[in-house]
Amino acid sequence: MWKQPYTYKEGSAISIGLLVTGGLLQVAVGPLDWIVFMWPGNILALAFLLLLLAVFYALRSHVYFFRFMTTVQAAVPALATAAVLTVVMGLTRQAPEEKPAADVLGLTKMLNFWPFILVYLWNTMIVGEVAIFQICHFRRQVIPSLVCHAGLFIFIVCGTLGSADMQKLKMYCEEGKPEWRALDAYNNVVELPLAIQLNRFTIDEYPPKLMVVSMTTGLPQPQQKPQTLVIDDSYTPTELLGWKIQVLKRIDNAMPKAMAKMMKGMPEGMATRMKMDQLGMRLNEGGFVAYQGKGAATALYISATKGKQRKTGWVSSGSYLFPISGVSLGNNLEVVMPTREPMRYASNVNIYTQKDALNIPTTIEVNKPFSLGDWKIYQLSYNEQMGKWSNVSVFELVKDPWLPYTYVGLYLLIIGAILIFIQKR
User: Fold this and answer.
1) Could you tell me which of 73, 59, 63, 57 has the C-alpha nearest to residue 125?
2) Where are the domains of the chain?
3) Where do the ResB-like domain residues begin and end (predicted)?
4) pLDDT tens digits for 160-187?
């Protein structure tokens, strides 16, 4: 080994050496903290990397190793090692940014794992050196390859060095109250140059479902493959575990009659402070009535028939104000309605900016973020206990100033791939 010209053996030895060196660094200094590359650290690191690559290229006629960097024998083992580490990362549950690795080696925080970082740095240097070589020895035939190499270099460098400047914050907005403070991954309060006021939170729900559960275990039946009935507009009487279920009455926004009477004239918000054990009554004894106030839930009056047996009663998923209601079938079995699943949820908000004194009314929903300057605002969550009556929205605010440059690298990769396919040779 190490006799010129180098082969795949030397290329593989370099990759193995980087893994060993990274392992020693992991033990000696611990995982890499990317915070050291926050601005201006990342731009200085990028300038140093570009200078290093330029020096390598300038000395390639004198140092064989620098010429070896642009060969297939160096690239293939490096790419194979990076691919293996990437697969390991994909198959390993990664720990959140604010928490330490869950394993001794550090594989559960791969982006901070020194062997992973060194291998990807080696790949980046190879790609960068090849791109410089192709620019200095430009020919029309190498344009597709050059575009791919340049795109890959920009994508990796901007994606890694730019991650230190990325901000991910959570903002909890209560209805009617402007909020300009958010929490980072470590629950530190961050004041923002913008404020969000939640006007109204809405949920579109999937149709209600019915299932049979065991009152002993609380598990849906049958346990191996639970059965459910979807009660949509086209529902017709259907069997569920041998019981024919018919919907006799449906109220989408309902409240137990006893509770509705008790809440009549009650100051808004007082019901949310009542404890259910203080009501001193079985709420579903008198049935359900339509109720348009907060805390209402879907209620179905059903009949369940099996041979000569017939059971009737109200089934409801309950809400933060009243408990779930079901119809007993005997033998510790009961027909119940699980909480309706959200199909779409969104927040009607006003966004205020400090710098330009803007007031922007908009709607933010899942997978449809709102962009304002460098910030993207995502609908993240809500008060799941209150469900569709939630008066709180949780937004995620993301600021990634290096993202546009990462996209440039990605688009160059795509263009390069297209050019490769249409190239004659």
Assistant:
1) 57
2) 8-166+404-422, 167-203+343-399, 207-340
3) 340-385
4) 999 989 999 999 999 999 999 999 988 9
pTM: 0.78
Looking at residue 261, its pLDDT comes to: 78
CB count within 10 Å of CB 281 equals 12
SS3 string of the chain? CCCCCCCHHHHHHHHHHHHHHHHHHHHHHCCCCHHHHCCCHHHHHHHHHHHHHHHHHHCCCCCHHHHHCCCHHHHHHHHHHHHHHHHHHHHCCCCCCCCCCCCCCCHHHHHHCHHHHHHHHHHHHHHHHHHHHHHHCCCHHHHHHHHHHHHHHHHHHHHHHHHHHCEEEEEEEEECCCEEEEECCCCCEEEEEEEEEEEEEEEEECCCEEEEEECCCCCECCCCCCCEEECCCCCCCEEECCEEEEEEEEEEEEEEHHHHHHHCCCCCCCHHHCCHHHCCCCCCCCCEEECCCCCCEEEEEEEEEECCEEEEEEEECCCCCCCCECEEEECCEEEECCCCCEEEEEEEEEEEECCCCCEEEEEEECCECEEECCEEEEEEEECCCCHHHCCEEEEEEEECCCHHHHHHHHHHHHHHHHHHHHCCC
Can you list the residues of the chain whose pLDDT is less than 50? 272-281
Q: Do 14 and 78 form a contact (C-beta atoms < 8 A)?
A: yes
Q: Write out the two tokens for 23.
A: 């392992």
Number of residues written out for the chain: 425
Cβ contact 383:294 at 8 Å: no
CATH code for the domain defined by 167-203+343-399: 2.60.98.10
What's the Cα-to-Cα distance from 241 to each of 222, 246, 329, rounded to whole Å? Answer: 8, 14, 11
Tell me if 348 sits within 8 A of 196, measured CB to CB: no
CA angle (115 as vertex; 111, 118 as ends), nearest 5: 85
